[in-house]
Amino acid sequence: MTKDVAYNELSAKAVEILSKGAFLTTAFDGKVNTMTIAWGSIGFAWQKPIFMAMVRPSRYTFDLIEKSNEFTVSIPFKDMRQALALCGSRSGRDIDKFTAAGLQAVPAQKLTTPRIANCGLHYECKVVFKQPMQPEQVTAAIANTCYPSGDYHTLYFGEIVASYVDETETAE
């Protein structure tokens, strides 16, 4: 069971948890993958609630999100460090992360992309804008620290079309 919440009702808590890790999931043509994210933002743009997620083109998730133009973000309200570590260090090209991490994909409310079961807070997002990072626009400090290999992100701005919590989970 889930309970709908306003996209910004738990945003401060969501951003705090996001910095420690959350799951971004996407799917296309029967292929589903989740990855760990720790960078992103929740805001309002173009008269819409927006979740901005960053995905590197080298990631398996990139190919799926490019084709599906949608993603879910599941913010864990409980300790899921082991699953987050696995999903952040292994590629969905090589393994089924759901099986390996003991995660269950369950249907989302409005998207074909699933969400992570019993995780906490969920955002369902439809991509409304995307922008590959332009290296010449990034400060040297960020480029040197975050992109030493030149593997810059693409920023995906997803309209939050549903936001809800698992009723069995609470923000502690």
From TrEMBL:
Entry similarity comment: Belongs to the flavoredoxin family.
Gene3D superfamilies reported in the protein's UniProt record: Electron Transport, Fmn-binding Protein, Chain A
Protein name per the record: NADH-FMN oxidoreductase RutF, flavin reductase (DIM6/NTAB) family
Residue intervals of the Flavin reductase like domain: 15-171
InterPro entries membership: Flavin_Rdtase-like_dom, Flavoredoxin, Split_barrel_FMN-bd
GO molecular function, one term: FMN binding
Pfam family, one: Flavin_Reduct
PANTHER family linked: FLAVOREDOXIN-RELATED-RELATED, HYPOTHETICAL CYTOSOLIC PROTEIN
